[in-house]
Design goal:
Belongs to the FliR/MopE/SpaR family. The protein has about 260 residues and is mainly alpha-helical. It is built from nine helices and two strands; from the N terminus they run H-H-H-E-E-H-H-H-H-H-H. Helix content is about 70%, strand content about 5%.
Amino acid sequence: MISLTSAELNTWIAAFLWPLTRIIGMISVAPLFGNVSVPARVKIGLGIMLAMIIAPTVPAMPALDPMSLQGLLILAQQLIIGLSIGFAMRITFAGVEMAGEIIGMTMGLGFASFFDPQTRARSSAISQFLALLTLTIYLATNLHLVVLSTLAQTFEMLPISSSFLSAGGMLEVVKWGGRIFSAGVQLSLPVVAALLITNIALGILTRAAPQLNIFGIGFPITIGVGFIMIGIVLPYLMNPIINLIQEGIVAMGRITMAMTPLN
C-alpha cells in the first residue's frame, strides 16, 4: 500500500509549481510564445510540457510548503525571473520595430499606421514589415529553440531558493533596454542616410528653381527613394538581426546571473 505524507506531497507540488512559474513568466512575454494571437490555453499547455521536461533536472529546492509565506515568496521570485528573461528577448524585437519607426517617419510614412494587437499601440507599416521579417528569421534559424535551451540553463545558473534576489538583475534589464535605441538607429542608418542626401538634394533644387512645387514632387521622391533603399538593404539585414537576437540570448544569461543572491 502506497502512503504519502503531506510533506512529501508538498515537496512534489513545489518541485513542479516553482519551475512552471518561471517558464510561464518567460513564455508570456518572449517573442512568438507570448504573442497575443496565441491562445492562453496553448501557452499554459506549452509551459506545463516544458515544466515536465525541465523539473526533474532542476537542482535541489527548499523543502517548504508552496502555500506558506516563504513558498509564495519563492513563487513571486520565479515569476520575476521568467518575466525578466522573456523581456530581454522582447527588447531585441522592439529594437527592430524602432528601426521601422525611424525609417517610416523619415520617408514621410508616419501617417501609414494602424493598431498593433501585440503592443496594443500604434505601429507603422514599415515597423510591422521588419517585425515580421525578424520573426521569420527567428524561426528559420531555430533561435526560438536556443531561447528555450537558455531558459532551461537558467535553473543551473540561478537555482530556486528562498534567498532574496539581487537588485543587480533589474539594473541589467534597464541597461539592456537602451539597446532598443542603438539597434534601431544602426539598422535604419543606411535608409536614413540615403533619405538625408535626397532631402539635401531637394533643398538645393528648391533654391535653384523656386518655381518648383517642392511639396508636389518631394513627397513621392522621398517615398520612392525610401522603398528603393529598403529593397537594396533588405538582403543584408539578416546577419545584423541574427546578431541582435543572439545578443538578447546572451542578455538572458547575464540578467539571470546578476540576480544571484549575495548571501
